[in-house]
Amino acid sequence: MSARGTVVASKEVPAPPRQPRFSLKTPRDPGFAALRRAARAAIIIPLALALGTFVLHLGQNVIFIVFGCFALLVITDFGGIRPARARAYLTATAVGAVLVALGTFVSLTIAAAAAVTFLVALVMSFARVFGGYFVAGQTGMLLAYIVATAVPAPSSSIPVRVGAFVLAGVISTLAGVFMWPHFERVTLCKQAAKACLRVADLVEALHAGGDGAELRQRIDSARNAEQAARREYVATAKRPAGPARRDRALAQLLIELQRIVDVVERPFSQHRAAVVPRIAERDRMSESVVTALRSSADVLIGGAPPNLQAVEDARLAHRVALDRWAGQELKAGRPADQVLDGLDVDHTLRVIAYLTVVLGSNAIITAGGWPEVTGPTPAPTPGGIGPVIVRVLETVRTHLDPSSTVVQSSLRIAVGLAIAVVVANRLGLQHGFWVVLGTLQVLRSNALGTGRTTIQSVGGNLVGVVLGGLFALVAGTNGVLLWSVLPFAIFLAAYASTAVGFAAGQAAFSLLLIIMFNLIVPTGWQIGVVRIEDLLVGVAISLLVGVLLWPRGVRRALARAMARFYRAISAYLDRSFDHILGLERPGGVDPLRRTALRAGDLAGEAFDDFVNENAASPLSADRAGFLLSAGNHAILAADLVEWLAASGYRASTCAEGAHAVEAQVLILLAGLARLADRLALVHPVESHDTVSVDRLRAAAVDCLRCWRNDESVGRGAMAVVMAGEWTQNVARLEIDLEQPVRDAVEAARLPWWR
Q: pLDDT tens digit string along 436-448?
C-alpha cells in the first residue's frame, strides 16, 4: 500500500504504457486468406456455372449455383480444422436451402415477402451474439434468401432452386475443405502459446528483481506477443466466441494474457519497501506460476497440461506464510508500518498467480480437456445438449435488451431489407435483388457511416459499370471471350473487397455481374445501367433507414452500455467489500456477479460494434478498450475480495479499522457511480471526496498494532490490510478512467451527422 497520501494527483499514477492496450489494426491479407479465397472462387465458380448451364440446363436458375458458391466460398469462407469446417459448410448448405425455399414460397406475395424478410433478417443478424460460425455465415445466408425472395417465382420452382443451391453447397464444401484451407485456429493457438511463453519470461524477470531496463524489455516483448495473438484473433475468419466451450475459453485466455501484462506494467506497489519478507513460499509461488505459464503454452500446441493445483497450493501457502511472517515481525517489535510495507511487496505477484490459474484453466479447455482447478471463479459448465441449451438461452437473454447494439443493428437491417423487398416488387425492377443487396451492402451502424459507404458504393459501382460496359461493347456476344475473362473477374471481386477496400470491391463486383449476366442472358452494356438504377434505389433505402433508426450509431449506445456495466460492477464490489469487512455474512453475490458479467457482455458487443464502425470520433479505440478492460479488472478485484472473505478473512475482529476502510469504500463506490452517471449523460452530483491512502494505511497500521497484543485479531487485521489494498487499486482505476470517460461522453453527445 503506497504511503504517498490521497489518490488524487496524476504524479501518483505511473505513465500509461508506451504501447496501446488494444491494437486492432490487421494486415490487409493475414495468412493470405483473401488470396486463397479468391483463387478458390476463381476456379470453382466458373466450373459450377458451366455445369449448371451446359450440363444441367438450369437456365436463369443457374444464378442459385453461382450466388450459392459466392455466398459460401467468398462471403462466408468458414475456417477451422477440416472436420469442423466441413460440418459448418454442410450446415450452412442446409440452412441456405431452407431459406431459398422459404424465400421462393413468399416471393409472389409482397406483404408475405416483406414480413418474412423482416423476421429472417432479424434472426440471422441477432445470431451473431453466438460468435464463431454464426458470425461468419450470417451474410452469406442472407444473400441466399435475398436472391430467392427478390426474384419472384412460383412454388413449383422450389425444387430446382433448392437443388441448385444444394449443389453449390456440396461443391463449396469440397473446395473449402480441400483447396488451400487456412487453419486459423491452429495458427491462433500457436500465437497464444508464444504469448504465454513471453509472459512467463516477464514474470520470471519480475521475481528476479532485475534492473528496470531489463524488465521494460520483457514487458515490451510480452505486450507485442499478446497483441500479435489478439490481432490474429481479430483477423480470424471463424473467430472463437459465443457459447461453444472451447471457443469461449480461447477468447478468455487472450484477455488473461493482456491482464497479466497490465498488472506487471502498472504494479500495485509504487515504492520500495524498507523490509521484504524473506519467505521461501514466495520463490515457490513464482516458480509454480512460471512453470504453469510455460505448460499452458505447451498444452495449446498439443503438449501436457499445466499443474494448476501446484499454483493454487503455492498461492495458499504463500498467503499463510505471509500471515505468519507478519505476526512474527510484530511480536519481534517491528513497527507496524514497516510490516504493512512488507505485506504489500508481493501483491502484484499474488494477483498474477490468481490470473495464471484462470489462464491455465482456459488453455486446458481450449485444448479439449477439463481442468481440475479453475480458481475462485465458477467452474466451466459441463458439455452435453442440456448445458448447451442453457448457455444458448442465457446468451439470448443477455443480449435481448432494447439498449443492446446487437438488437438495434438487427432491427435496422431487418427494416431496411423488408422495405427494399417491397420497393423492388412494387417498382417491378428487372433485377430486384440488386436493390435488396445494395441496401444490405451499404447499411451501417450510423447515418454518417451509411452516407460514407453510399458514396463509396455508388462511386465504385460507376467505375465497375463503365469498365464492364466497355468490355461488353468489345466482347459483344463472344462467349469464348466472356468465359475466358470470367475467372479473372471473380478473382478480382473476391480479393478486392477484403484486401483492397470497399469501393474497389464494389467496382470489381459490378464488373463481374456484367460479365456473368451476359453469359446467362446476353444484354450487352445495358445491364450496367440496370445495375446502377437498382443500386441507387437500394442505397436510398439505406440512407432513409440509417437516418430514422438510431442515426447516432453506437457512440451513445457504447456510453450507455458502459454506464450500465459500471453500475453493476459497483453493486458487486459493494457486496464483496461488505463481506471482507465483516459487515455482512459471505454469500449471495452470485446474482450480482452474473449481472455484472451480463452487463460486461453487452458493453463488449457495443465495443466491437464501435471498433467495426470505423468512424471518426473523439473516443479512440484504445480508450474505448480501456473502458472495457478497466471494468473487467474491477470485476477481478471483486472476485478476489470475495474469495478472501470466503477463505475466512473478515475484519469483524478489528471493527474500528473495518469502519475506517468502509468509509473509503463508500467514497470509491460513489466515484464509480459518478462515472456511470456521466456515461449515461446524466449530470452527476459533484463531490470532491477522494479515496485517502493515508486513512487506509492508518486503519491497517492500527489493526496490525492490535494484532501485536491480541492473537485473535490476526485474520481481521489482514482482512483490513487486503481490503485497503483493493480499495486503492480500484481507486487508481477510477483516476485512469477520467479521460476515457470524458472522451466517451463527448462522442455520445455529437450530433448524428458528425
A: 777 777 666 555 5
Tell me the chain's radius of gyration from C-alpha atoms: 29
Please state the domain extents for the chain: 30-182+401-548, 189-232+242-390, 554-748
Identify the CATH class of 554-748: mainly alpha
Q: What percent of the chain has pLDDT over 70?
A: 83
Give the separation between CA 268 and CA 256, rounded to whole angstroms. 17
Report residue 568's pLDDT band, with 50, 70 and 90 as the boundaries: very high
Torsion, Cα 359 360 364 366, to 10 degrees, reads 20
* pTM attached to this predicted model: 0.73
Dihedral of the CA atoms 601, 602, 606, 609 (nearest 10)?
70
Q: What's the residue count for the chain?
A: 754
Residue among 119, 77, 151 nearest 413 (CA): 119
**Three-state DSSP state, 6:** strand
Torsion of CA 562, 565, 570, 572, to 10 degrees: -160
Helix, strand or coil, per DSSP, at residue 737: helix
Please name the residue ranges forming H helices in 179-270: 184-208, 212-235, 245-265
610-613: list long-range contacts, CB under 8 Å, 24+ apart: 610/554, 610/555, 610/558, 611/24, 612/445, 613/444, 613/445, 613/446, 613/449, 613/553, 613/554
